[in-house]
Amino acid sequence: MNRSIRGMALWACVLLSGIAAVAVPRDAARADDTTAYRSPFAIQAAPDGKTVYVTDRTSANVSVLDVANMSKRGEVALHGNPFGLALSKDGATLYVAEHGAGTVAVINTGSLEITSRIAVGKWPTAVATSETPKRLYVGNQDRDSISVIDLGQNPAAVVKEIPVTREPSCIAVSPDGQRVAVTNLMALGRGTDPDLAAELAILDGQSLAVACNVKLPPGSTMVPGVAIAPSGKYAYVVHGLGRFNLPITQLERGWVNTFGMSIIDIAEGTRIATVLLDDLSQGAADPHSIACSADGSKLWISHSGVHEISAVDIGLLHDLLEGKVSQELAALKDGTRPNIWVQIQQDKAKIADLENDLTALYIAGAIRRYRSGGVVPRGVALSPSGQSLFVANYFSGSVSMIETASGRLQGTISLGPQAEADPVRRGAIIFHDATRAFQRWHSCASCHANEGRIDGLRWDFLGDGIGNPKDTISLVHFDKTEPMNRRATMQKSRDCARNGLASTNMIVPTEQDVDDLYAYLISLRPVPSPHLGEGGKLTEAAERGKALFDGKAACSRCHPAPYFTDNKMHNVGVLSPNESDGRYDTPALLEAYRTAPYLHDGRALTLKDVLTTNNEEHRHGTTDKLTPAEIDDIVAYLQSL
To answer: How many structural domains is the chain composed of?
Structure first.
């Protein structure tokens, strides 16, 4: 049988539409607090190899770990929800993104004291340092931008804010500081575009502008990690690769979700290749972070969905892409055909086929997978010697140390007493666990990793027939927006949770599983919009928009507060060949600012498009007599919800 994804028979399964989740941090916890959850996220190793720093999102601190004694040395309480962190080259200063607080905490690693805070966007995520010149780059999820901070100033200050495509999630700086690679978490485009995909932004370190955007393969989304080779020539990006142009009729062998790594030539601004990290019948669900060895020969990738680490021989992979194939490898056949690497040796255009080949890395011996030592591994960091890999295992509340030569677990370091998991926490684990799905092809988070919201793609679910793809919807206030799905094919939210496990993951769930997952889903709450004004109040434009929304435009007729849905079906005037009645369930408008594209099939890129170019019959509000300024005011109000 052809090892490629293409050419396989289809059979029926149903994907759960719109399940998603967010971990809600509790108040900062003391080291001896047994009521908090410990959830290590991002991780950095000190230059001397003796200390490891890790952000603890649910306990709102940075934990300081002693490598020699395999123990926790202390912690630093933080504001907001700590995300990424970065160390200065000398290891004396630690920078931590305080998501929700709008600051980066600057920590003296000798005294473990916060010496200052730098104001950035409201939702800082990733941080990275540059030595020449001394800069800090900060990804602002709320503003789709990168703040550039001059660390040579006293105090350090933002000198430039660079727009990027959508929700920057990871930043890597080339050794010479001339190029900065920024992953955009998901695609930004209309759902009707068959080539819709996320991009990698490459910034110019001199002009402080976007040098180019490199598009990943169609269906690429959830792009959480990037690393730059020590040579500075290549960027390595890990991401999901959804087969969103196909009906969701067959789960096995990657017909729905696969997971890849793309190789980018930084200087040329081109994508060289995308290889799949999955195996023929085992998904490598939810790659999260990536680290490159000091000699550039090996990559280490965490897979949060399957609780594993991949070791990729990137030196070998580059040789194979250049056509250097050993006799032993050339002798292996794909059925009666030459294998993919021989095909590439004969025709470089065949490199494009790698993004559909589930066994390419494995037959070449270019990848090995190891257990991570915990549940849902997120951040990874190599020791200065390169002999150990540190892994932040989110739901285990621990950091594991893995010997890089063998993949052997050397030990684990606890971040502190771990509270007993309640139903919400247990449900969160189920939500992120792809080992609870057939052949481990995805977790619920694979399509809804954006903190319980969307993936930016549309999918052709079977619950309402084939040939009518729908964009993923947010399940914030999951239980308040019944009936479920765009065509209201399921009346009760709890049934939707059960269907997700039974039909999407293709397992037989226990009642406990369903109860826990449901508890998690109904715990999801909207976060205050970053578009709100001072004190969390509506801006003047949003106040005017609210008056129009409730009044002249009559939007609230179908979108009444507090959930901004009437929970009814309406003909919205947006027809498709297979659904000529045009009737769809009214979507909630909470957090509309972060859920583009819009309408059931994602044809509207912006909220303004919904009110104007996609509102010929005035079924999305009576807007034909509104001025452009009034339309802008309504958009301002919608962005504040």
So the answer is: 2
